[in-house]
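Repro:
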Amino acid sequence: MMKSRILLKTIMLLALSCSGGVAQVTDVISIETAQGNIKVELHGKDCPQNVAAFKAFVRKQVYTGSAFHTRGPDYIFGGKPGPHAVKAMGESGNFSAQKAPPGEFTLEHRRGALIVARTAGSCNPDKRTNSTQFTISLEDSPTTSREYTAIGYVVEGMEAVDKIAAILNDSKAKAADTRIKRIKVLSK
């Protein structure tokens, strides 16, 4: 009986991993902030178009000099277009409708999820990711998993994320305290 349970669990795990059910890390990024470094693993096989767009912004230094600027109930918002975004995307930091990647809703919104932003509402019925901005989840939020595309998860530096969230709660917070010094793609 015990051997058959172990065999069944092994077969289920193998089937899951062969079917693509296990998220695969394709890239690692480092976010250098005034409160410490944050390392994020990106899942490009699960959401290839959104990961590719985010990496393109990173390579164009869109986020250099920007800051985490808003704290919601369960996230911090970052990547408001810095000086480089104007060159890369235009004044708004948003995609044109034709270039915006589609929503790819495969990863769950759990604590540490890096989620790319989009315009909500009837002006974006296809839920395309049409913004350079992103959030990092402070807690699990399964209700938003089918609304916004998560592209990866924080694997190191969640304490820096929590420090930034605490600073954003303070009305006297300064952008320098939540500044994104640099984001770079690391080799996997």
